[in-house]
Amino acid sequence: MDKIFRPNPNSFKNTFCVFDEISIDAINGLKIQYDSKSGSKYYYTKTGMYRLSNHWGRLANSKWRLEPLEPETISKIKLGYASWDRFYPDNAIEELYYLEANYLKKRVNYQHRNNPKYDKKAILRTSFETTKRIKQIRNLFNLTSWANYFDCDDIDLLREKIINQLIFTTKTLEEIKKEFI
Fold first, then answer.
1. What pLDDT is recorded for position 1?
2. How far is CA 44 from the centre of its chain?
3. Which of 32, 108, 145, 161 has the most CB atoms at less than 10 Å from its CB?
4. Which helix (H) or strand (E) holds 52?
């Protein structure tokens, strides 16, 4: 009989991880190894973790995000998988995070500096600074009233220029806007 792989529960404290949504069929034959009070179910393997849950984001003292399938599933309960090497340390003090924008979908997300895809071009920030920039970028994506103060024919181009400055410089939003007035 195979021994069940079970990591130390403390190994997940203060971590950041991006899970990929996968088909629910992936856990067929696996046994639930942890069932949280909030209803999330965890399946551990030697290579990584499956998490079946209806909530993602901040979890107690960790930040776990789910990258959805394309096209997105309509179910609220989603299965995510992450290999063990995708769990990175998290704290409020260090500059651990950088931003990525998807201009077609008008979305912004944060990534960890230990992500192998990090090209060292985007500015690293603390959790607090990252959250503040995310809010600013989401407002730029979702609102148009801010553009009334600019002499601009192409709001999407202006939006992209401002957001790029927010991602790749340490300038404040006010400093960036002044450059375009």
1. 41
2. 22
3. 108
4. strand 48-53
